[in-house]
């Protein structure tokens, strides 16, 4: 029984990724930082638990969010290094095949053209998912040994959701870099373009939004409704960036006491018991963020797909 | 085997292939000749359905290449110009990958890959990384890669580019042998005329997107040099005007060009006996006498002389 060509391609791509130095280096980097953040989180555990803490029941989730200030927490590391992982797996997906002269040979085989790009995407996604889940479970396992507290079923589900969101987030950067690898002939150019996009979104975009916010700020004496509108406007501007969507989604998922991502009025809070939300309610809060993240990923993939399918493949 | 009719490809205002009609029979080795940028590669891409023609149609093995490229690619092996391999994989692994993409089982693929590697003379290098292969070895691995799917037609785009003369010779002999043994139809493109004239059954001259002439080399030379079908080369040390006039006086001799040591004499009949007698009687030394067929080089340049001006006048 012969294997399906698509599976053969995915298998080869995964093998290529796993054997490449670049991936090994990134795995080491990410694993070390994550273990470092776990170490600081464990050290902070005792101080962080208070008797009246509404999140007291979610002791285990603190492994992912706690920090003593010397090292960022696990979630922050993922939001920072995740894009790097995605970019490094995708930036030379198509153009290196073209430059090595293997793309036209591949195209001469009896496979549909979109297999090439689909296989590249699927393989990288599998690698990312396996890696993030392995890392997440590693942190959980080490936490179990160090702290000795068992996670509840809900905590476990929240961690799974968090890891799924992380995979989506890294997939966005993967697709963006695959798109650049189709547009630009030189791998260096596409790597730089992806890095530029990443830097822009993580550093400069916030600065620009700050400038806009300052210009558009209403006076302190203006109508509360106006101030509310202004706050929403700034928050929405920030949400155009995938990293913002990711951090909002992860905060809500890993901190069950977060009830809203926007301002709450006194009337809304009045009479509410400071208790954690159940998982489905937390998911409901971050649903728009999740949708936005997945939509951005799909848009990038669609762009790459369209430009790849229309392209005429010549030898190098 | 390959039927091309009224095929045209335009990129914007530029016409890469202009109203091409061609048909290639089963088991034939056909050479597509032309200078760089003549539209050879574009034509090949259209045969494989890798790019869409602006108008016209290509049928390979009875299958429309534009509508059903995947079926065509099952039957056609294509060796692109300057082929590349995955450098981290060995030669054998590269072949196995291609074989699996063609739906072969691992077992069958390995048997066939080993057989083909031996056939192209790479049996000893099978487990070497493809990145360490030389240009000539890569080209031979490319040939094995093309053959692994047991194609009916193989298309080779500039297969002799960048290989040393000895390598070219071996490579072309290999192609001719394979074609003969397995009844393959071969289409190869090149701008090196004399290299492929030994192996091709028929050639097509391709210039600026137009097919100027098709036929065997003999036919082409007859068509072109109908007034001077015989070219006789004589090795004469002497270069006197008297001898030249005497030779020109022989019935059937149309032109005499004395070059250093070798005289080129164009005739309408085989006048070699008369030429030999005349040279010897004149007292000059006759080193050798050779009847030449016009080569592709002559045909090619002749066409350029004739059509280069016509084409530039038209455009």
Compute the number of strand runs of chain A. 0
Strand content of chain B is 25-35%
How would you describe the oligomerization state of the chains in this entry? heterodimer
Helix vs. strand class of chain A: mainly alpha
The pair of chains with the biggest contact is: A-B, 26 and 34 residues
Biggest pleated sheet of chain A: none
Average pLDDT across residues of chain B? 84
User: Gyration radius of chain B, to the nearest Å?
Assistant: 24 Å
Low-confidence stretches of chain B: 310-315
Distance between the termini of chain A: 35 Å
**Average residue-wise pLDDT of chain A:** 86
Estimate percent helicity of chain B: 25-40%
Largest sheet of chain B: 6 strands, mixed
Query: Would you identify the regions of chain A where 5 or more consecutive residues have pLDDT less than 50?
Result: none
Total separate domains of chain A: 1
Binned strand content of chain A: under 5%
Structure annotation, total helices of chain B: 11
Could you state the order of secondary-structure elements of chain B as H and E?
A: EEEHEEHEHHHEHEHEEHEHEEHEH
Overall, the morphology of chain B is elongated
SSE ordering of chain A:
HHHHHHHHHHHHH
Per-chain topology:
The complex is a heterodimer of chains A (316) and B (315).
Chain A lengths: L4 H15 L1 H28 L13 H4 L8 H17 L4 H6 L2 H5 L6 H34 L5 H31 L3 H30 L7 H15 L3 H13 L11 H4 L9 H32 L6
Helix pairs in contact in A: 1-7, 2-4, 2-7, 4-7, 4-8, 4-9, 4-11, 7-8, 8-9, 8-11, 8-13, 9-10, 11-13
Chain B lengths: L1 E10 L2 E11 L4 E5 L6 H8 L7 E6 L2 E2 L4 H7 E4 L11 H11 L4 H14 L15 H13 L5 E5 L7 H18 L2 E6 L2 H5 L4 E6 L2 E6 L1 H8 L5 E7 L4 H8 L4 E6 L3 E6 L4 H10 L4 E7 L3 H19 L1
Parallel strand pairs in B: 3-8, 3-9, 6-7, 7-8
Antiparallel strand pairs in B: 1-2, 1-4, 4-5, 9-10, 11-13, 11-14, 12-13
Helix pairs in contact in B: 3-4, 4-5, 5-6, 8-11
